[in-house]
Amino acid sequence: MSAVLRTAVTGVGSYLPDQVLTNQDLAKIVDTSDEWIFERTGIHERRQAAPDQAVSDLAVEAARKALAAAGRTAEDLDLIIVATTTPDLTFPATAAIVQRKLGAPMGIAFDVQAVCSGFVYALSIADGFIARGNAKCGLIIGAETMTRILDWTDRSTCVLFGDGAGAVVVEPAMGQGTTADRGILSFVLRCEGEKQDLLYVDGGVSTTGQIGKLRMQGHQVFRHAVINIAEAIEAAADKAGVDLSEVDWFVPHQANQRILKGVADRLGIDEARVVSTVAKHANTSAASIPLAMDVAIRDGRIKPGQLVLLEAMGGGLTWGACLLRL
Ligand code: ACO
User: Fold this and answer.
1) Which residues are catalytic?
2) What is the pLDDT along the chain (326 residues), one digit of tens a residue?
3) SS3 94
4) Which fold has domain 4-175?
5) Which residues of 120-136 are buried (b: 16+ CB within 10 A; e: fewer)?
6) What is the domain partition of the chain in residue ranges?
7) Atom from ligand 1 closest to the CA of residue 157
8) Which atom of ligand 1 is nearest to the CA of 155?
9) Nearest 5°: CA angle at 226, between 221 and 230?
10) How far apart are the C-alpha atoms of 313 and 295, rounded to whole Å?
11) What is the DSSP letter of 298?
12) Domains 4-175 and 183-325 agree in fold
């Protein structure tokens, strides 16, 4: 045992746009039903950003709440990372726009693109800055306007996604090098580019010049999600020397209730320890983990000092998991 600098999450916040889109609303647009969507996915409704709301606007709302929860102000920030698939502009990074809108001082700011795994990637990258002493106060945001890249004529995908943002403040915390330490204890990140055809957007800057629409082979994605997420959870726990029975809360990327259940069943995890917000948020890609974490902290389920395992899979295919003590 020796003293070690950890990256602690000191505040969490989230934001959902006002506009609610229910399954019944979608049934007026495509040939679907509340029963079909809920049975297959566990989703009842999702949010849609207003036409004049950019993803940076969602991110800033979530960021302000996270800063308040941490007892910090924008003045304190020296690192901003935004995980997003739906940036305001091709450049500059949404993180730079967030820095300007928050009035944060000059510092490190950039975006991470790992689709639904983006928040886990971004948090793990932040660990490199904070735990090596290169940043003192970081804002890590997952923010998405997924409804802007959906094909609203494709019922197999347009019913699955929503808009929103979640943010965490991260700061250094001195630990003893044990799993009792507060902060990030381990993470694993993966990408298997071979499987990119299973889930992608059919446009981009250097190919079509258009933003494109989301395309997915649902069955295949489902199968890989259960296998890959379970693998990442076990790897992250192993790396930290923690047994899964010691984990207080699992906060998964919110894609589909059946994926959450499939992973829990595979690992023998009681579903009561799995935070689920998919019914009200749908799949908000990189935003879904901090959104879910914020809900469970504010309703009193996740408490300071508890062990929390974040996990995700998304386009790439990317996947990963991060174990931390709050
Ligand atoms: N409403 C009604 N019927 C529909 C709808 C809909 N919204 N969507 C598809 N169907 C129809 C299909 O056309 C098909 O009809 P057919 O048999 O006449 O051809 C039938 O329902 C069955 O379609 P399947 O695709 O086989 O349905 P499945 O049971 O696989 O469920 C789903 C589809 C929900 C997309 C599922 O595959 C899934 O959840 N996959 C995971 C996808 C996911 O969550 N991706 C998110 C991004 S990745 C991530 O975040 C992990």
Assistant:
1) 116, 253, 283
2) 689 999 999 999 999 999 999 999 999 999 999 999 999 999 999 999 999 999 999 999 999 999 999 999 999 999 999 999 999 999 999 999 999 999 999 999 999 999 999 999 999 999 999 999 999 999 999 999 999 999 999 999 999 999 999 999 999 999 999 999 999 999 999 999 999 999 999 999 999 999 999 999 999 999 999 999 999 999 999 999 999 999 999 999 999 999 999 999 999 999 999 999 999 999 999 999 999 999 999 999 999 999 999 999 999 999 999 999 99
3) helix
4) Peroxisomal Thiolase; Chain A, domain 1 (3.40.47)
5) bbbbbbbbebbbeeebe
6) 4-175, 183-325
7) 35
8) 7
9) 140
10) 21
11) H
12) yes
Residues with CB under 6 A from ligand 1: 32, 36-37, 40-41, 116, 155-156, 159-160, 199, 216, 218-219, 221-222, 225, 253, 255-256, 283, 313-314
Task: Quote the CATH superfamily of domain 183-325.
Answer: Thiolase/Chalcone synthase (3.40.47.10)
Q: Is residue 238 packed enough to be buried (19+ CB in 10 Å), middle (13-18) or exposed (0-12)?
A: middle
Coil vs helix vs strand at 21: strand
Q: Residue 54: what residue type?
A: A
225 — phi, psi (to 5°)? Answer: -60, -50
**For residues 242 and 32, what is the distance between their CA atoms, to the nearest angstrom?**
43
Indicate the pairing of strand 183-191 with strand 199-201. unpaired
Q: Give dist(CA 268, CA 259) in Å, integer.
A: 14
Tokens encoding 36: 């079909």
Cis peptide before 323 (omega within 30 of 0): no
